[in-house]
């Protein structure tokens, strides 16, 4: 048991207390935001902003620039999603004479017109993260080319996996902001991949967060499907 605990949490012995506290706060707010998203509660965005902002800072300090880029994007898309969901909720309240509560957000399915945007987003994301990792020796060298060795041969399986999960997460966040049910499928895949990835990177609390994220995302997918059926039935009632 002692060896297991040391394997899971031993890396934190070298961390400052403030980093550990910040990671725990980010994890708690991250889990809360996913639970709120499953209930189509608009508070998902302000709560999520706390988590992503903290992770941007932590990941910059840890020099995990691909992950940092994800969370920076989350921060921007949370603001966009907050605005989009707020507008939609108001429209639903007026059209259906419903009370202005959090669950008036209209859920939609993925449309064919979304595919080109998703493809562009995925390609652009993979290219951008690959560029970051290509120039990682320069970044780690204080943004100096002196003595820095560049090349694709320096890429590891972690780097390639990070490119994949980054693309999946960014597509999922865009679809979530657009209120598409299918964003949960992308979350499930990316969250599941991230569990062993973050364990390997040594961030146990974050890895455990993604275990919770995966389970919530599976449940939330079916919850959004249920809400969509209720929404469709109400539209024809």
TrEMBL record:
<dbReference type="Pfam" id="PF04973">
    <property type="entry name" value="NMN_transporter"/>
</dbReference>
<feature type="transmembrane region" description="Helical">
    <location>
        <begin position="68"/>
        <end position="85"/>
    </location>
</feature>
<feature type="transmembrane region" description="Helical">
    <location>
        <begin position="155"/>
        <end position="177"/>
    </location>
</feature>
<feature type="transmembrane region" description="Helical">
    <location>
        <begin position="43"/>
        <end position="62"/>
    </location>
</feature>
<keyword id="KW-0812">Transmembrane</keyword>
<feature type="transmembrane region" description="Helical">
    <location>
        <begin position="15"/>
        <end position="36"/>
    </location>
</feature>
<protein>
    <recommendedName>
        <fullName>Nicotinamide riboside transporter PnuC</fullName>
    </recommendedName>
</protein>
<comment type="similarity">
    <text>Belongs to the nicotinamide ribonucleoside (NR) uptake permease (TC 4.B.1) family.</text>
</comment>
<keyword id="KW-0813">Transport</keyword>
<feature type="transmembrane region" description="Helical">
    <location>
        <begin position="115"/>
        <end position="135"/>
    </location>
</feature>
<feature type="transmembrane region" description="Helical">
    <location>
        <begin position="184"/>
        <end position="201"/>
    </location>
</feature>
<keyword id="KW-0472">Membrane</keyword>
<keyword id="KW-1003">Cell membrane</keyword>
<dbReference type="InterPro" id="IPR006419">
    <property type="entry name" value="NMN_transpt_PnuC"/>
</dbReference>
<comment type="function">
    <text>Required for nicotinamide riboside transport across the inner membrane.</text>
</comment>
<keyword id="KW-1133">Transmembrane helix</keyword>
<feature type="transmembrane region" description="Helical">
    <location>
        <begin position="207"/>
        <end position="224"/>
    </location>
</feature>
């Amino acid at each position: 048991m002692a060896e297991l605990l040391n394997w899971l949490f031993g890396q934190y012995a070298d961390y400052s207390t403030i980093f550990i506290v910040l990671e725990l706060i980010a994890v708690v707010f991250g889990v809360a935001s996913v639970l709120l998203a499953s209930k189509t509660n608009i508070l998902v965005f302000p709560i999520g902003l706390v988590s992503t902002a903290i992770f941007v800072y932590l990941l910059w300090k840890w020099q995990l620039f691909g992950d940092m880029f994800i969370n920076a994007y989350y921060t921007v898309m949370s603001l966009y999603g907050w605005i989009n969901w707020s507008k939609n909720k108001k429209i639903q309240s007026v059209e259906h004479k419903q009370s202005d509560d959090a669950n008036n957000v209209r859920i939609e399915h993925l449309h064919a017109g979304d595919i080109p945007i998703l493809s562009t987003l995925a390609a652009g994301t993979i290219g951008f993260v690959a560029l970051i990792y290509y120039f990682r020796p320069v970044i780690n060298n204080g943004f100096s080319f002196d003595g820095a060795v560049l090349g694709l041969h320096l890429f590891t399986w972690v780097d390639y996996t990070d490119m994949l999960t980054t693309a999946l997460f960014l597509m999922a966040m865009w679809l979530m902001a657009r209120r598409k049910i299918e964003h949960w499928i992308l979350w499930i895949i990316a969250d599941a991949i991230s569990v062993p990835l973050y364990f390997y990177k040594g961030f146990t609390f974050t890895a455990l967060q993604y275990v919770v994220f995966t389970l919530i995302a599976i449940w939330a997918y079916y919850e959004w499907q249920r809400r969509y059926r209720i929404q469709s039935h109400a539209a024809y009632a």
